[in-house]
Amino acid sequence: MDFKDYDIGPHYDEMFAAPGVPRPGAQLLVDKIMSLGMEEIQSRQQAAEQAFYDLGITFTVYGNDEGTERIFPFDIIPRIIEAADWNRLELGLKQRIEALNLFIDDIYHDQKIIRDGVVPGDVIFTAEGYFEECLGIDPPGGVWCHITGTDLVRDDKGVFHVLEDNLRSPSGVSYVMANRQILKRTFPQVFAAAGIRPVEDYPAHLLQTLHDVAPNRNANPTCALLTPGIYNSAYYEHSYLAQQTGIELVEGRDLVVRKGVVYMRTTKGLKPVEVIYRRVGEDFLDPTVFRPDSLLGVPGIMDAYRRGNVTLVNAPGTGVADDKVVYAYVPEIIKYYLGQEAIIPNVPTYLCWRDEDRAYVLDHLDELVVKAANESGGYGMLVGPHSTREEQTDFAERIKARPRNYIAQPTVKLSRVPVIVDGGFEGRHVDLRPYVLYGGEIRVIPGGLTRVALKKGSLVVNSSQGGGSKDTWVLAR
């Protein structure tokens, strides 16, 4: 099997610098693939898919008539990132998380950045992720965003940009580890020879992060992962991370607050819990503070948190920094708090609440990608070049009705990587979600979740919209 018919097209291809010319870091892998027949490649692909089934690695699709549980579509040809590219990304991600954490802390305390006119107060106070209930809270170590998934895209020049920040409860890291586990079996010799940086130690780093932010510097805190339950779309990941880190997996009904202290119900009675990795959104976290009809949260947990008796990871209120309108200000946020230029640039962004920007967007809907400020998963989005006139008209009305809720960006010509299609290889567009942990220090896990748009020509990589994933190989040298 070879790549003689593989068309890199006008896009930036991450495996080939030119037709038939692999990039230096991909040469070993290309040589191995070319030494195998098509039958063998397809056999390994099928074995990988079966392994996902056997391991129970699934996600839930709601409202689908064909069944809700699916494996995450997976392509065995890995995405390779050169060491020099990764080193720059790592520096840029650390810079970004440090600045965003300072921003969140400022927003819930002195709000200097608003007073100094860098970010408008209206933008902050109308963000769905902003909660007045978090004003004045001091999380241990001043850390708010303990776990971040930052979405990156590479353009047609090979330059990485930040597409969006995910600081509430970013998902997908379990697939990173599952992908790696399966790829090491698929190409063991190439993996051993290529010098790939590990991701398997993520659970150990996650556990250390939880310990680092425990109240009163408790060296051996009891930690738990709070899940909405088995019907949540990411429940596989919740149970996987709890098992891998050795922490407790709990639902709201398993916890109780007594005199400002959070306890876990056990067969031996109540046991104090000091750190909670929450995968429950703020709205449902504490019915005495947020939604009173919530059955998923823990009454009184915010009081315990405010008293400093429990650490919530991520801290409630972090979502103010991943609002897509606030995203547009992150370069200014970095400069304001750190006095530095952003190492990883944003994608240029139009803010529809600005009259001039809105007028431009409405006149160019067929060219732009329009996004709702607080939607995720590929929903609430218009991809202009692939949209119909009816869809453009619909979005124009949405923008006019709620201009604060929409941004627009040029259609980025996403980089591509080969995937196996009908007995050969075709290029498909990808993005990248690296995971960043912040406890005692900021740590970036090498690689992350490469999501791939499996539909030909599609730019939408979300699994709920027909996307899949690849293992991400970061070269050590």
Automatic annotation (TrEMBL):
InterPro entries in UniProt: ATP-dep_Glu-Cys_Ligase-2, CP_ATPgrasp_2, UCP005522
Circularly permuted ATP-grasp type domain ranges (all copies): 78-453
Gene3D superfamilies with a match to the protein in the record: 3.30.1490.270, 3.40.50.11290
Pfam families per record: CP_ATPgrasp_2 (PF14403)
PANTHER family documented for this protein: BLR5612 PROTEIN (PTHR34595), SLL1039 PROTEIN (PTHR34595:SF7)
Protein name: Circularly permuted ATP-grasp type 2 domain-containing protein
Organism: Pseudodesulfovibrio mercurii
Taxonomic lineage of the native organism: Bacteria, Pseudomonadati, Thermodesulfobacteriota, Desulfovibrionia, Desulfovibrionales
